[in-house]
Specification:
Layout: H1 2-23, E1 26-35, E2 42-48, E3 54-63, E4 78-80, E5 84-91, E6 94-97, E7 100-103, E8 114-122, E9 131-137, E10 144-145, E11 150-152, E12 157-158
Antiparallel strand pairs: 1-8, 1-11, 2-5, 2-9, 3-4, 3-8, 5-6, 6-7, 9-10, 11-12
């Protein structure tokens, strides 16, 4: 009887820890293919299917500039309301959604700089599954569908 009780307690502990991990609320998208050239504009539609708002923060992780990025998260964030879809526009040396713009000029100095970006999204119940994203690039119609970005929330890893 004691063994059964121990197994039940261990199972409950594992379930609670796993459940809390999902509720931690951080999903990280890695976008390795951005460029500051005006002809390489990237548009990403990000859908927050949770009921709570989420906050997106941005860190330039790599570039092909003569000055390496500091890899410090930008202090300006973008909010995505619950049950809403937001358009993120990566153009030149800024990231824009609605009226909010994040300046990344200090991390992408020079012209036509290619860079890789980490976008960390935090909020209640945020997971890769609750934050669908699709990205397109270019100034032509139709835009080019992009692949190669990933999402990781500690429990899910998706392309």
């Amino acid at each position: 009887m004691l063994k059964i009780l121990m197994i039940i307690v261990q199972t409950l502990i594992i379930f609670v820890l796993w459940h809390n991990d999902i509720k931690a609320g951080t999903a990280t998208y890695n976008l390795p293919f951005l460029n500051t050239h005006t002809n390489s504009v990237t548009y990403c539609w990000l859908s927050n299917t949770t009921t709570d708002s989420a906050i997106a923060s941005f860190t330039v992780m790599s570039n092909n500039s003569s000055t390496s990025p500091t890899q410090i998260t930008n202090s300006t964030t973008i909010s995505i309301s619950g049950k809403q879809t937001a358009l993120l526009t990566f153009t030149g040396q800024s990231i824009t959604s609605g009226v909010t713009s994040v300046n990344i000029a200090s991390e992408t100095s020079g012209s036509s700089i290619s860079y890789g970006l980490k976008m960390e999204i935090t909020g209640n119940s945020v997971t890769c599954e609750s934050l669908g994203m699709s990205c397109f690039q270019g100034t032509t119609n139709p835009k080019r569908n992009l692949a190669g970005y990933t999402c990781n929330d500690g429990n899910h890893y998706g392309f």
